[in-house]
Every structure is written in C-alpha cells, then in structure tokens.
Amino acid sequence: MTNYVNRAGIEVDPALADFIETEILNALEKDADAFWQGFAALLGEFAPRNRHLLETREELQAKIDAWHVDRAGQAHDAEAYRAFLEEIGYLVPEPAPFTIGTDNVDPEIATMAGPQLVVPILNARFLLNAANARWGSLYDALYGTDALDAPPPVSGGYDRKRGDAVIAEGRRFLDEILPLAEGSWRDISGADDIHLSDESGFVGKTDAGLLFRHNGLHIEVQFASDHPVGRTDKAGISDIVLEAALTTIADLEDSVAAVDAEDKLLGYRNWLGVIRGDLEESFEKGGAKLTRRLCEDKIYRDADGADHRLPGRSLMFVRNVGHLMTNPAMRWQGGEIPEGIMDAVVTGAIGALDVAGPGMGRGRFGNSRTGSIYIVKPKMHGPEECAFTNDLFDTVEDLLGLARHTMKVGVMDEERRTSANLGACIQAVKDRIVFINTGFLDRTGDEMHTSMRAGPMLRKGAMKGAPWLKAYEARNVGIGLAHGLSGRAQIGKGMWAAPDLMGQMMIEKIGHLRAGANTAWVPSPTAATLHAIHYHREDVFEIQKGLPDAAKLDELLTIPLANGVNWSDAEIREELDNNCQGLLGYVVRWIDQGVGCSKVPDINDVGLMEDRATLRISSQHIANWLLHGVVSEDQVMDALTRMAAKVDAQNAGDPAYEPLLENRDAPAFSAAKDLIFKGVSQPSGYTEPLLHEWRRVKKAG
C-alpha cells in the first residue's frame, strides 16, 4: 500500500514527488508549490473531459453493436451503414482544405527521410543502443545477418571468406550510390586514388575518412590500414558507416509493462537521462564490464577547412500513454489519475530541460535543435480526442512557461474512428503535428472489435489482403500529403517484426518508401542501418509528388467478414493454435517478467519483436470466433493447453521462465484466458486493463 504525499490535493507517490521536485523542477528553477497548484487545476479541467471521451467511445460502440445485432442474417448494406455512422457522429464531415502550420521542426522529421526505431523506455541499455543508432556500420550489419547473400560466417573468430563477401557488397553499394568520376570503388588503392565527380555528394573529411551526403543522408567511408578489416582491403577501407536511425521513439506505452509508480519512475528517470545526456548503463559481456553512454557528435572538415558538427544520436520522441488507462502513481479526488495526463505533464517537464535557455539545465548534447519537444500520442479515437490532446498540451505549456506549440505531437493512426476521420484529426492538432503512422496489429484489433457483432472475421493472414487494410495504408499517406505534411512532418509505416530475417526485409520494406512513407519502423539498430540503404535507392519526397489521391472512405469502411467461408476443422485448429501460441508466448513475459517487448518465437519458431498490440489482435480474433460459434470454449482451452506446452519448450533455456503448464492458475495463464473470454467486453478490445490487473497480482506475490 502506497503512503502518498499530498501536493495541492494530488496524492503522489513519495519517490515520484521527490524526483519531480528535485531533479526536474529545481533544474528548471520552477516553484514546486506553483507547479502542483497548476497541475491540480489542470486535472480539474481535463480529468472530467478524459472520462467523457471514454464514455463516448462506449456509447458509440453500443450503438454499432445494436445496429449489427438488429441486422443479423441480412446482407451488409454499405450505404445504410455509412449513413448510420454519420448519424451517430462516428463519422464527421470532411474539413475544408487546409495545410498544417507546424513550425520549428527538426530536419530529421521535416526534410529528411530515414528509419525510425521504437524502444522500451524501461530498459536503459536498449534505450542507449537505439539513441546511438544514428550511425551504423554497414560492414557489421552485412556480416552478421542474412541480408548478405553469401554463406554464413564460420564461428570461432573472424571469417575471412565472409569478410571478403562483405567488402565486395560494400563496394557494390558505393558504386551504386556514390559512383566515381573515373573507374570503380573496387579498383581504388586508397583515399588518394579516388576521383570524385561534381555530383558525388562529398562534404568533407572526418578523422576516420571521407564523408558524403546522398538523398539527405550521410555516408562515411572509413580508412585504416592497421584495422583488422582495413588490413585485408587493398584500399585500406575499414568500414562504411551509414546515417541510419534519424529518429527514435522512447516508449512508455505498448512496449513496456509499466503498472505502478515504481515502473513509471524508472521510465521517467531514463527519459530524463536521455534529455540531460548522462544516461548510462553498465553490464558484463564476455567476462568484461562495459559501460554504455550516449555517443558524441560526428565532426567533419569541409573543403575550405571549416569544422562542422553532425548529431551523433537519433532525434528522440517519447511516446505517452493513451486516454484509457489510469495509474496508481498519482491519485486525485479518490481515484487514480489518467495516466496520459500524468505523462503529458511529466515528460513535458523533462522535455522543457532540453529547450530551456543556457544555464537552465540544458542537457549535455541537446535533443531538438529547433526548440521542440516531441511526444507521440497513441490510441486516440477521432478528432474530438485529438482536440483534447491539443488543449492538454496547450495547458501543459502554460504550466511550464513554454511557448505555444513547443510540444509537438505524433498521431498514431491505429484506431478505426481516427482512420475514418483522419483529415479532421490532423486539423485538430494542425499547428503541432509532426507525424502520422500506421500499425497493422492495433488497427486490425480495433477493426474487429468495432464490428464484433457483424459476423465472424477473416483469418488473420487473409486480413492482410482485405480491402479495408489497403485503403487504410493508402489513405494515411494520401490524406497526410493533401494537408501538407510532406516537408514538415513524417508520414510513417509500421514495424518489420522479424529481426533475424533481414534479407527478406531488404526485399519487402522498400515498398514502404514507394508507398510514400518518409519513415518506417525497424526492430533494431542493425535493421536501421540496412533499411537506410532503401532511402538511398529511393527519393521519397520525389515519390510523394506523384502519388494518387487518398483511397475512398467506402473502401476503408468495408468490414472484413468471412461471408460464405466454411473452414475445415484443420484450418480452424491452425488459426486457433497460431493465435493462442502468440498470445501465450508474449503474455508470459509481460506478466511474469515485466518485459513489454522482446523477440518472441512464433508458432514456426521464427523470432518476432512483439509488443502489446500482438495480444489485442490475437485475443480479439478468438473472441470474435467464440461469439459467432466458429469455435467453442473447449476448443479454445484445448488450444491454450497445447500451445502452453509449446511455449514452455520454446523457453526451456531461460532460467527466469516460469512454465505455463505447471502454473495454469497463476497470473500469466489466467491473464491469457481473461484476454480471450472477456475480450468482447474489454474497452475497444484493449488488453491493458487485464494485463495491468494480473501484473500487479504477480508483483504482489
């Protein structure tokens, strides 16, 4: 039981209160009493509005449920359905033409195109790795992954044959992207033997070699004849370093298991460490103790002898929690405060340290060079909820003494009502929006929950070819371009989930650029380095100029029903097993170990980077099939039991793992059952309420 301290009527966890007052407000030279009074006034205005928005979600869902129930057995009438959605206010009128007004945006977001990482903020080592992924070794990325079409390296030290294949591939890349005025990169004998063309993109020299810029991204060709690789290279090239993860999202939401004050404080403290520039993490590797810190900037000298500085780290966003959840870290008027409001105030205050003037606590490196704080806001349903976030950020800026629109917002287009009203959602935050992004898992989970009572849904694999999904991805780009995001904000695409399948990623993920995305998510720094190649091969901003208008709304509103499909028993069992295995494989780590994102083996033993959205799509799919009699509770329990055995076998080598089969009354297996059997009644099909409940049970012992 937390013994709270009282701050202007807000009950605050003592450690969190001390952190805010000592490490943030003192550094900002802000009066603590005035801050808490302002926070309390903010809660008085926004907590009731937050509650009203959640009630509106449930009211709309109840009306949609009733509409489908009343028409059970009838053919779907798309025209009547759209008219109904307009009548109840689920669909709002399209706004008149407008262009976003966001300014003071860093080039990594506005005018550059490149990979984006998302990293769990509770893991300091992962957070540092991601922040430092601005620059990545192409040689390392090729040597250690299947992106290189060559025999894998032989274990036991450096494999010279594999290394030669890496060097050859590096030369092919240089000839493709940075062709010489004469000859080939394959034939040079050293840095002095390079004949650059006027269009080479050469910008200067670093201490390690030559620096080029192409499609807005930098490439450093490093020379070192005494380097283990440089010694084997006739030109002495030791590495090719690519500017890779331009931006990184430090995540307080789907990739973390943060259920109480202890968890939130860790997340806030790590974010503060990034902003101050002093975050570090020590660990043992190969018997040696290593300490990881944020990378220094990269310095180069141009042809006139002038020195220039390039950022050594990703530009950082922080992803706040959505509107749904509350957290016991703070209480107000007898209940937990909305977690999204708490995140906005605390992460905004930490971000203020980055944009404060000299002597006011500015970090060692600085994050934004334009005086902006970048916050991603997930799981908003429609323009009214986006307007709430805009008003909330206004009020936080006033509380912290920040200029209007210092706090920028990235809108996750992952809920059906946001997708269907995307233009109006963008308009609601038009002077602070810096990105829109799609996500298959959450968006499909909401698609199924919204139309839960319309009938049984397609299998998950078939869902990827459904008309609504194609329209969703196309509309996200088309609507963003129509409202002026190109050159001012990011239009993003979702995650490549398989970190071990880099060869396949290199074939497929370039499609995100060709669809008009100037950023896309990747699962690791290595993947960011490889994905950067795509941005050299395609000029996204040129592609955006030639893209068609957004797909029609009617296509988006097509419900992915399995009309007339008669699955075999084997097909039903296969789908159930796939869903249950993925659900159990992830939930057991979330509940038992507090790990919100990790590489989880799928049913075919392929490691996938999974987060909470995995549970939403899997649990909603099973809940839908249960509701419509495609499967029975007995079939689901049978699948859960069999897949528990498989997940136990997949995790047999993990000393921290607690077997599911031996603990079917324990929190992890209980949570999995609840997510399925209570799935229909969960708000918007979200998994957070049940996960938080069972994680707290587990933490309480």
UniProtKB/TrEMBL annotation:
A GO cellular component annotation in the UniProt record: cytosol
Pfam families: MS_C, MS_N, MS_TIM-barrel, MSG_insertion
Reactions accelerated catalytically: glyoxylate + acetyl-CoA + H2O = (S)-malate + CoA + H(+)
Keyword Transcription regulation: no
Domain Malate synthase TIM barrel, residue spans: 316-552
Primary location group: cytoplasm
Domain Malate synthase C-terminal as annotated: residue spans: 571-675
Pathway: Carbohydrate metabolism; glyoxylate cycle; (S)-malate from isocitrate: step 2/2
One GO term (biological process): glyoxylate cycle
Positions of the catalytic residues: 319 (proton acceptor), 611 (proton donor)
Record-listed E.C. numbers: 2.3.3.9
Entries under Gene3D superfamilies matching the protein: Malate synthase, domain 3, Malate synthase, domain III
Modified residues (Cysteine sulfenic acid (-SOH)): 597
Entry-linked SUPFAM superfamilies: Malate synthase G
UniProt similarity note: Belongs to the malate synthase family. GlcB subfamily.
Role summary: Involved in the glycolate utilization. Catalyzes the condensation and subsequent hydrolysis of acetyl-coenzyme A (acetyl-CoA) and glyoxylate to form malate and CoA.
Annotated protein name in UniProt: Malate synthase G
Species of the source: Qipengyuania pelagi
